Amino acid sequence: MSTRDLRAAFAAAAADGRAALVPYLVCGHPDADTTVHLVLEAAAAGADVIELGVPFSDPLADGETIRNATRVALDAGMSVAGCLDVVRRVRAAGATLPIVLMGYVNPLARYGVERFCADAAAAGVDGLIVPDMPLEESGELLAAAGSVELGVTFLVTPVTGGARIAQLAAASTGFLYCVATTGTTGARADVASSTVELLDRVRNLAGDTPFAVGFGVSTPEHVAELAPHADGVIVGSALVALVERDAASLAGRIGELVAATAVVGVR
Questions:
Q1: CA separation for the pair 186, 180 (Å, rounded)
Q2: Cα(123)–Cα(38) distance, rounded to whole angstroms?
Q3: In a designed cystine with 22, which of 44, 49, 221, 263 is the match (CB 3.0 to 4.6 A)?
C-alpha cells in the first residue's frame, strides 16, 4: 500500500459520482478481535478508507464518546504495537482498502518516529493523522513517512486562514482533513453553515490534494449534505457509539452512509 493508493481511493469514489466514505473506529474497542472483524465488515459494506484511532490516555481532539472507547481499549491492553498487529491481521484476511492511523505525538515519539513509520508501512498502513503535530514541527515525521510512502494528513478548521489552508494542503501527502467545527469530536444535531463555507474555501485552495470533512458528522443526512462539497466524509463518534451499543449493526449503518455519499449536482 502507498500514498498513491490512498489518493486513488478518493479518485475512484469521485469517478463513481460520490464522495469517499471514511469510517473511524478506535483500535481495540472493545478488543482487538472485534476491531479486525469490524474493519472487514466496513470494507465489505463499501467503505473507501478506514481510519483507526490509536488509543492514548490524553486524546486532546476527542470528545467523550471516543475518550470512553479509548479507555476501554487501553484497559484491554491495546498499544501502538497492538494497533499495527490489528492492521496486519486485516491485511492477512484480504482487505485491500487504504487504512489510515490517527494517533497523537507522544505514543509515536515513544515508539520512535522513524521506526513507527517503517513498521506501520510494513504492517499495511497507508497514511497517518497526527492532530497535535504542527506543520512547523513535522519535518521528521514527513521525512520518515515519505521514505516508506505513508501519506501524512494535516488538519484545517473553520477559523484557518486561506494562506494557511493552502500551505497545509500542499504539505498533506495523504489528504487534507477539514474539521467541521471548532472543539472536540462528537455527534452534533446539524451541519453548521461555517462547515460548508470552509469546504468551499478549501475547494479553491487545496489544489490536487483531496480533502475530507469530519468531526460531528453522524447521520446519513449529514453525509448527504456535505458530500457535494468535499472529496470525502469521515464519520467517527456516531460509529464508535454504535459499536458500544450494537456492533452487529455496523455494516448496515456503513452501507447507509455509503449510499448517502452520492453527489447531487455539480461541484
A1: 11
A2: 18
A3: 49
Residue type, 207: G
The answer to whether 51 is a known catalytic residue is yes
What is the C-alpha separation between 224 and 31, in angstroms, rounded?
31
Lookup result for grid cell 474497542:
29
Confirm whether 62 is a catalytic residue: yes
Among 19, 21, 38, CA closest to 29: 38
pLDDT per residue as tens digits for the range 172-212: 999 999 998 754 444 455 666 788 999 999 999 999 999 99
Answering whether pTM is above 0.85, one says yes
| Fold category of 3-260 in CATH | TIM Barrel (3.20.20)
| Residue 92 main-chain phi, psi, to 5 deg | -65, -25
> Which candidate, 104, 69, 88, places its Cα nearest to that of 241?
69
Which residues, 6+ apart, have CB-to-CB distance to 149 below 8 Å? 1, 2, 3, 4, 121
Low-confidence residues of the chain, pLDDT below 50? Answer: 1-2, 183-187, 265-267
Phi, psi of 127 (to 5 degrees): -160, 165
Rounded CA-CA distance 151/29 in Å is: 25
Question: Which residue is catalytic, options 16, 31, 41, 62?
Answer: 62
From 16, 31, 51, 208, active-site residue:
51
Domain spans, the chain? 3-260
The stretches of 137-249 forming alpha helices (DSSP H) are: 139-147, 162-171, 193-205, 220-226, 237-246
**Radius of gyration for the chain, computed over Cα atoms and rounded to the nearest angstrom:** 17
